[in-house]
Amino acid sequence: ALPVFEIGSGDCLGVVEIIMTTEKINYRPEVESVCKALESVDLRSSEMLNISQEQGQKGSYEAIMPEILNVLRTVCDTHNLPLAQTWAPCSQQGKAGCWHSDKNALCVSTVDSAWYVRDQQVMDFHRACSEHHLLRGRGGIVGKAFETNQACFAIDVTEFSKVDYPLSHHAKMFGLRAAVAIRLHS
Questions:
Q1: Are residues 28 and 72 in the same domain?
Q2: Contact between residue 47 and residue 107 where contact means Cβ atoms under 8 Å apart
Q3: 26 is in which domain, residue-wise?
Q4: Does residue 186 sit within a domain?
Q5: Nearest to 50, CA basis, from 41, 58, 61, 38
Q6: Number of domains the chain is built from
Q7: Does 172 share its domain with 103?
Q8: Residue 61's CATH number
Q9: pLDDT digits over 55-99, tens only?
């Protein structure tokens, strides 16, 4: 589902739901097509798709990303985990607002330079995560960890509703269940 905003006021006028006949992980081309159609009639959706990841500002945390990546790799290899990802506030990454809100201060997204996929069979799950932004407090355990400043654990993320964790159906497609999110502080 894509929010539809009026260009001048930024008011959300409604939501467009895109329904497909096949299960896909990468539906970015379809979403971009809808976004272009909206722009042709002076409407827009979230700017998330219109900003290339290279345009994002590098936050002050970029210097520690190699160290975080090393920790993610070590943890995955030691404990035989399929993947680990780093999420950060969109505002710190210079990314635009998310699918659910046009205010980037409220959402988090994966950090392009700090993720590790040990099991290549879940690479498409990582790609799906990198295309989604999650709201703080409404992004499964990641959003909850950001909101509460506490480590969070879920036995089965596929049981979350799509509203509470928009990636739950992707997790189910890849057989991923348990997850932990730990908020790091400087």
A1: no
A2: no
A3: 2-45
A4: no
A5: 38
A6: 2
A7: yes
A8: 3.30.450
A9: 444 445 677 788 889 999 999 999 999 999 999 888 777 766 555
- Residue 155 CA to residue 159 CA, distance in Å, equals 9
Tokens of 87: 């999420």
Tally the residues of the chain: 186
83 and 37, same structural domain? Answer: no
Are 31 and 115 part of one and the same domain? no
- Are residues 15 and 98 part of one domain? no
What residue has token string 């992707």?
A: 170
pTM: 0.67
Give me 34's structure tokens: 């809808």
Is there a contact between 36 and 47 (Cβ–Cβ < 8 Å)?
no
pLDDT in tens, 128-184: 998 888 877 777 889 888 888 888 999 999 999 888 888 999 999 999 999 999 988
What is the SS3 string spanning the chain?
A: CEEEEECCCCCEEEEECCCCCCCCCCCHHHHHHHHHHHHCCCEECCHHHHCCHHHCCCCHHHHHHHHHHHHHHHHHHHHCCCEEEEEEEHHHHCCCCCCCCCCHHHEEEEEEEEEEECCHHHHHHHHHHHCCCEECCEEHHHHHHHHHCCCEEECCHHHCCCCCCCCHHHHHHCCCCCEEECCCCC
Residues in a beta bridge with 85: 115
Does 113 map to a domain? yes
